[in-house]
Amino acid sequence: MDSYRGTRTALIVGAGMGGLTAAIALARDGWQVEVAEIGPAEAAAGWGLCLTGPSLRALDELGLADTCIAAGYGMSTITHVDADGEPAGETQLPRLIGAGRPSAAGIARPVLHRILYAEAERCGVVIRHQVTAAAVAQDQETGLVRVRLSDGTERHVALLVGADGVRSAVRGLLGFETSIDYHGLMVWRALVPRPAWAAGIHQFGGKTDTAGVVPISDSQAYVFLTENGGERGALPDDELAPRMRLLLERFPGRVRELRSLVSASESVVRRPILTAFLEGGWNRGSGVVIGDAAHAPAPHMASGAALAIEDGLVLARELGRHETVGAGLQAFVDRRMRRCRTLVETSVVIVGLEQEQRYGEMYPLVASCHRLMADPV
Predict the structure, then answer these.
(1) pLDDT digits (tens, 9 = 90+) for 239-258
(2) Are residues 151 and 252 in the same domain?
(3) CATH number of the domain encompassing residue 337
(4) What is the separation of C-alpha 260 from the centre of its chain, rounded to a whole number of angstroms?
(5) How far apart are alpha carbons 290 and 26 in whole angstroms?
(6) Which parts of the chain have pLDDT scores under 70?
(7) Which of 28, 44, 273, 307 gets the most CB atoms within 10 Å of its CB?
């Protein structure tokens, strides 16, 4: 008995992009939605991200694309520069939301979080912080999911959604296992003033590492650096900016300006590049995992956010088309599996090409993957 027409209640674990998008879409369809987030109530940490065309297309369906573009920085190109500082081509990003609007938008992660959070609350979503799922059991008689939260309280809901990231707790509670793969790369990001010439994404292919800059507002951008073969362990905070500045010394041309901006930045992070793909299905009973909990690509395609946002929207749409949670979840997984697998697998290939400095093969593959992502979901 997994019919949910009379008990459309949902618990979403994780208040990231995928979780909040799912919460908004479900609440607008009449679901009673609660979100459990292990983090504090403050806006999400992080520097910036790129909302590519598929992200904007999904957000536009929710009426939020223009708000995100206005709060960020609209753009349409990726400019490639070779290891000698010479131009190496340009990728035109697919324009999916109309000729008068940008192909993509850089945006500060906390700003995007505030937009989605405010809309979720406006739709009646209840968001609780510093709590997560601790135990999950399926009630075969009612079709409901019994969830014990980390504060000891319980929920009986028609739908459980794990949107809690690549190290998802819900994934394990539903009985799924998957490997999380480290590819020998560390990614650095530093929040800096936007250089006047950075009106789109710029990517610099180095002789060992790669670097770039993404504008996230009229006044701000983030510099990224992909360190090939760096030690995976954490570094003291006071060593981050000096170490990133040192790594950027290897690059010629405009990276020198970026290096000086990083020197003055007080906001630098360093993280391992991890990928994961959950084989065999993402749903069990009335529970499902979405976003990075199901499929985590490398950041080279700047499309992890797009997949998570699409997941949230498509999940609500498929549940709205089917009479039971089980049927809706299966339709969701069937619809998303191939697309997400292709992006994760392609991102791993791109990582390998970058590690070998095979940029002539890497850039066309990035462009073709953006065209693939432009296809309808």
Answers:
(1) 999 999 999 999 999 999 99
(2) no
(3) 3.50.50.60
(4) 29
(5) 14
(6) 1-6, 43-46
(7) 307
